[in-house]
Design a protein that fits this description.
Elements lengths: L1 E3 L2 E3 L3 H13 L3 E6 L23 H12 L4 E6 L7 H4 L4 E4 L4 H14 L11 E7 L2 E7 L22 H5 L5 H17 L9 H17 L7 H9 L6 H20 L8 E5 L5 E5 L15 E5 L5 H10 L9 E4 L3 E3 L4 H7 L7 H4 L4 E6 L7 E7 L2
Parallel strand pairs: 2-3, 3-4, 5-6, 10-14
Antiparallel strand pairs: 1-2, 1-3, 6-7, 7-8, 8-9, 11-12, 11-13, 13-14
The protein binds zinc ion (ZN).
The site of zinc ion has 8 residues, from loops.
């Protein structure tokens, strides 16, 4: 992530591009935060790093490289997590650019910047420019905390990896990936029994590759390769240097417009699709009513009073716009379930088997906190008839 004039962002695939662009655009005071060290696999696209830098912190090496090449820019690196810093730290910047690879970190910085807004103090509103890439696809967006749609408002746009129906795998594969999934999900357990598939074992991958190749031939499907097998099994989406360059360019362009007012900035979301030709689409993503971060009201949530608390929690975990893992739940009048500390967990565990209707009234507000949630979520739980 880079903070400039100061912006800030990470120093990974997007971060290298962003830092270079900001420095060459005339930004003079930039802070960069990154918690990673340089890996040899980064060297093909993270162009601020050399083989001799492997093992060193990305933020530090990137800052030194850009300062050596571009005169007059000061880049302050921080090797650590963005969560190490608090509102006092983020308040010193004019805007924040994110090139983060995790949903958690994005939610955190988004909630932090929304929280920092004081309507009495214009300076407290820090525009957030968020860039993200996945293979040939990418997006950049401008978030004015509390004024425009925030990162949390759009969380339901994150699509879980499309699951291929088992019948497609078993009977009529159409794509090379289907053949690979067939080999790993169906053939491996059928032939190997209890032997566990190790995604890092080249012999196992070779076995899957050969099986998938045979099956592909049978159905006249081409394109199964060893590296594709590895990619499908490990769920790897390759990082593409040109996608990073395009998205970073868009982010820095917006930063320059916001800081200098030379032109209106983007309103507010640009999607780039580079896998079939080159296509971009810009639209206004609207604020979500009842967004738990930038909205003000508790959201309604329909549940059955017959569900046990445990069932209720499981269903919440499945919701893509909530994304919780180990939640703690309470109402105004009682503790429903505490994921920690141990004594509280023991005390509240029996509630998991109780029915919702025995724990609360329909319409009662439930507050939910979770390690994955940078804020506390409030739901009005309404019992369906
Ligand atoms: Zn929001």
């Amino acid at each position: 992530m880079t903070v400039a004039d100061h912006p800030k962002c990470g120093a990974g695939g997007l971060g290298c591009e962003v830092l270079k662009n900001l420095a060459l655009s005339g930004f003079t005071d930039i802070h960069v935060i990154d918690m990673d060290t340089i890996d040899v696999s980064n060297l093909n696209r993270q162009f601020l790093f050399r083989a001799a830098d492997v093992g060193k912190p990305k933020a530090t090496v990137a800052a030194e490289f850009v300062m050596r090449r571009v005169k007059g820019v000061t880049i302050t690196p921080y090797y650590g997590a963005i969560q190490d810093k608090g509102p006092d730290y983020y308040m010193q910047f004019q805007l924040v650019i994110c090139g983060l690879d995790s949903v958690e970190a994005r939610r955190w910085i988004n909630a932090t910047l929304v929280d920092m807004v004081d309507p009495e103090n214009q300076e407290s509103l820090k525009p957030l420019i968020d860039g993200g890439t996945e293979g040939f696809k990418g997006q950049s967006r401008v978030i004015l905390p509390t004024l425009s749609s925030c990162y949390e408002c759009s969380l339901d746009m994150l699509t879980p990896r499309a699951a291929v129906p088992m019948c497609t795998l078993a009977s009529i594969p159409r794509q090379p990936a289907h053949c690979i999934e067939w080999a790993s999900i169906l053939e491996w357990p059928r032939i190997m029994g209890d032997k566990k598939l190790d995604n890092d074992d080249p012999e196992h991958i070779t076995w899957l590759y050969e099986k998938a190749l045979e099956r592909a031939k049978e159905f006249n499907i081409t394109g199964v390769t060893y590296s594709m097998t590895q990619g499908v099994v490990k769920n790897i989406i390759p990082a593409i240097a040109s996608t990073n360059a395009i998205i970073a360019a868009s982010c820095c362009n917006e930063a320059l417009k916001i800081i200098t007012s030379c032109s209106p900035f983007m309103n507010n979301y640009m999607m780039y699709m580079g896998d079939e030709g080159v296509y971009t689409h810009t639209f206004e993503h609207e604020k979500k009513e009842g967004c738990p971060v930038c909205g003000t009201l508790a959201t309604d949530y329909e549940a059955s009073g017959e569900w046990t608390l445990d069932e209720f929690i499981e269903r919440l975990k499945e919701k893509p716009d909530i994304q919780i893992k180990k939640p703690t739940l309470s109402t105004e009048r009682r503790k429903l379930y505490y994921a920690g500390p141990p004594q509280l967990m023991e005390m509240t565990r029996p509630n998991l088997d109780k029915k919702l209707k025995d724990l609360m009234d329909s319409g009662e507000e439930v507050a939910i906190t979770d390690p994955g949630l940078p804020f506390s979520l409030r739901l009005n739980v309404i019992f369906s008839k």
